[in-house]
Specification:
single chain; Jelly Rolls; five-stranded antiparallel sheet; about 55% strand
Length: about 110
């Protein structure tokens, strides 16, 4: 198993604001995990997100981003098809009273 890490720099999400963005796949990957990192160490318990690959929304409703703010061995393995040409879209809403600065780290597996 060959794992590739791709970091999406969401940047600063101001208090009460929403940031949206996307990233397209450049190879034949399986999306194994998504890890949320707040650059200053803030707990993301009151920051929500939706995530989807093209038309497949795998968060269904907004989720607290804090559930993705864990070590990899504590995350649910996703195993979603993220092949060349597919696009991952994210929407992150900061419900805190202070700004947060966020990375989303994609753990991608290359086929053997």
């Amino acid at each position: 198993m060959v794992l590739i890490y791709k970091t999406i720099d969401v940047g600063t999400v101001s208090a009460g604001a929403t940031e949206e963005g996307n990233v397209s796949s450049d190879d034949q990957y399986t999306l194994k995990y998504v890890i949320a990192v707040e650059k200053g160490g803030t707990d993301l318990y009151n920051v929500t997100a939706t995530l989807r690959i093209d038309d497949f929304t795998f968060t269904k409703d907004k989720i607290p981003l804090s559930i993705l703010q864990r070590p990899v061995n504590q995350l649910l393995e996703l195993n979603y098809d993220f092949t060349k040409g597919k696009t991952l879209y994210y929407s992150i809403t900061n419900n805190l009273t202070s700004d947060v600065n966020i990375f989303l780290v994609l753990v991608l597996e290359l086929p053997e």
